[in-house]
């Protein structure tokens, strides 16, 4: 799978995804870096068939209202440290991969993985 990780998440999030065999970019890898607009992030993700990974609820609204980005993973864990975030993602990676075989929007929290149909 291909991911585009938004600015509120650490660049090392991409490393965790890569360690699991995925193609991952961070907004810092884009021409405008973390100043890249949400609309541009969605456009890049959609044209590159990437899943936007974000904590930003604005992407949820854009997904629901305009179907962009076309694939979305919302990290709804609140403010947790990077080590806890890594543990959360690593523990859920198999379920995330399985969910994206059919779903276009998932939400991961400290306690659950929600698959939105």
List keywords for this structure.
single chain; six-stranded mixed β-sheet; 117 residues; 6 strands; alpha/beta; 4 helices; globular
List the helices and strands and how they pair.
Blueprint: E1 2-5, H1 12-19, E2 23-26, H2 38-48, E3 51-54, H3 57-66, E4 72-75, H4 82-99, E5 105-108, E6 113-116
Parallel strand pairs: 1-2, 1-3, 3-4, 4-5
Antiparallel strand pairs: 5-6
Structure description:
By secondary structure, the protein is α/β, with parallel strands linked by helices. It has one domain. Helix content is about 40%, strand content about 20%. The protein has four helices and six strands, in the order βαβαβαβαββ. The chain has helices at about 10-20, 40-50, 55-65, 80-100, and strands spanning about 1-5, 25, 50-55, 70-75, 105-110, 115. It has a six-stranded mixed β-sheet with strand order 2-1-3-4-5-6, sandwiched between helices. It is globular and about 30 Å long. The two termini are about 20 Å apart. The relative contact order is 0.16.
Question: What is the structure about, briefly put?
Answer:
The protein is of the alpha/beta class and 117 residues long.
């Amino acid at each position: 799978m291909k991911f585009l990780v938004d600015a509120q998440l650490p660049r090392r999030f991409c490393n965790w995804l890569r360690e699991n065999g995925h193609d991952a970019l961070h907004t810092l890898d884009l021409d405008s870096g973390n100043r890249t607009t949400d609309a541009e992030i969605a456009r890049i993700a959609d044209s590159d068939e990437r899943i936007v990974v974000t904590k930003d609820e604005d992407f949820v609204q854009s997904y629901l209202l305009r179907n962009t980005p076309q694939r979305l993973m919302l990290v709804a864990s609140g403010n947790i440290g990077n080590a806890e975030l890594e543990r959360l993602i690593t523990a859920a990676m198999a379920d995330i991969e399985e969910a994206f075989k059919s779903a276009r929007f998932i939400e991961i929290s400290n306690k659950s993985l929600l698959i939105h149909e």
